[in-house]
Amino acid sequence: MLKRAAIVAVAAVCAVSIGAWLLMRAGDIPSAKAEQTAAKTQVNVDQQSVDVSEKQVEAFKVAPVDARQFKVMKNSVGSIDFNQNMLVQSYTPNAGRIVDTFFNVGDEVKKGQPLFTIDSPDLLTAESALLASAGVLELQTRTLARVKQLLKTGGGAQKDVDQATSDQQTAEGNFKAARDAVRIFGKTDAEVDRILADRKVDSILIVPSPIDGRVITRNAAPGLYVQPGNAPAPFSLADVSTMWMLAYVIENDAPAYKLGQPVEVRVPAYPDTIFRGRVTTLGLNIDPNSHRQLVRSVIDDPMHRLRAGMLASFTIETADPMQSPAVPLEAIVREGDGTMTVWVTTDRRRFERRSVKIGLEQAGWRQILDGLKPGELVATTGAIFLSNKFANATSGS
């Protein structure tokens, strides 16, 4: 009996506890519902607005519409090439066989440095003629001196002096012509004097670099017979301090480009580097197949980092900057039908959906052409949330 009474007492205590717990939960249910209602987002489809709760306000970032300067720019892609106006093909001035070469592709060359040497038969002939004319001049000079001496002593005639003078002048003219002929081959006066002093010909002709630049092609090799103007040139050199950017822009943009416009060029190899230049050439025709126009720019490259054939993109400022309303990029929402919208608020609680016309994008800001005025408040962080809430309410209705 005692055991049974104890069990009944325990059961009674448990019943009382459960009842008290149920009463407490019943009191909590209205408050939980009230919190849920307070946190609920209210969507008004007719007014195209969304009301957010006080707690949700903290998660939203609101910013005023700013008035900013937007540069009017055009963009295009193209490629890098050598500045053909600064590219030189170095030929030999006279025929002969190459004896030696001094540079390879990619080497830097200064103007006047020897590129290669050739054994020139023409130079050998010219130097031989110089030595012969020097000998004749020396002989005629001695002859003139002798007949003048004979005339003074009464052993000669005046006609002999006149003839010797004529012969000496002719020999002197031939000598000067022969000396100039050797100098045409690039020999200096000192080198010509050494040939005359040593009475020894030197048929090796030095071909110097005509410009400061870099060797871009080399076809020269010892033993190769070369002639003036015969392709391929033994060496091709380019001044790579400037390069060309070649782009083909769409036909509709062609009127916007002008000679002298500043250009900013970027290449994938140096993504953080901007190369600057200017437009120097505009194509005179539109390609009938692609309907594009050539725009060629000269790009400064003092560090010699650009390479011919590199892919490149350019930006050209084609007009004066314009001031327009602007919002951060995250404030713009692209709707399913392609329209662009923002969410405007005056009290940071109610956000109204508004369609806008957008323009340029620069430095994280989007130009607004129509739909907003400077100073109005728009949602930035959270704009997507508002758009999704509105879309769900619209589809649900």
Write structural notes for this entry.
With 397 residues, the protein is an alpha+beta fold. It folds into 4 domains: 42-70 and 322-396, Beta Barrel (conserved putative lor/sdh protein from methanococcus maripaludis s2 fold); 74-84 and 240-320, Beta Barrel (Elongation Factor Tu (Ef-tu), domain 3), CATH 2.40.30; 89-120 and 203-239, OB fold (Dihydrolipoamide Acetyltransferase, E2P) (Beta Barrel); 121-201, Helix Hairpins, CATH 1.10.287. Helix content is 32%, strand content 37%. It has helices at residues 2-39, 54-57, 121-153, 158-184, 189-198, 383-396, and strands at 42-44, 49-51, 62-64, 66-82, 87-90, 96-101, 108-109, 114-119, 204-208, 213-218, 225-226, 235-238, 242-250, 262-267, 270-282, 292-300, 311-328, 333-334, 340-345, 350-362, 365-370, 377-379. The strands form 3 sheets. A 6-stranded antiparallel β-barrel has the order 4-13-16-15-14-17. It has a 4-stranded antiparallel beta sheet with strand order 5-12-10-7, with no helix packed on it. β1 and β2 (49-51) form a beta hairpin. The radius of gyration is 46 Å and the shape is rod-shaped. The two termini are 67 Å apart. Mean pLDDT is 84; it is low at 5-16, 18-24 and 26-39.
